[in-house]
Fold this protein.
Amino acid sequence: YHYVEWRPMEEPRWYSDELGPKHWTSSRFTHVMKLRQAALRAARERWADYILFVDSDVLLTNPRVLSLMIAENLTLAAPMIESHTLYSNFWCGITPQGYYKRTPDYVPIREWKRLGCFPVPMV
C-alpha cells in the first residue's frame, strides 16, 4: 500500500435516533458520506492512482478483482456483489425522479448470463 490511515475512536459511537446498530438513520448516512468524501479528498491530495471503498458486510472472493477493475481503465469501476436474491449493488436504470427502474438488462447481468463490464447509472 502507498498509504493507509487509521483513525480509531476511543469509545463506541451511536446515533440518538437509531433503533439499533444496523439502523441507517439520516445522521449515520451523512457521517459515512463525510468519511468517504474525506478519504477521496486525501487520496487526491496524495495523487493516488486508485482508491477502494469496501463496506464491512462485503467479501471480495475473487483474487483478481482489483486487477480486473484496474484493467478496465475507467474513472469508476465496481464488482458485482453476489447475493442469493435479485438484490445487487448496481442499478441498470433510474427513473427521472432518481428511483430504481427495472430494465431488461438487469436480470441477465445479475444472474451472470451476460458477462462483462457494463455502464450503469448507479453503483
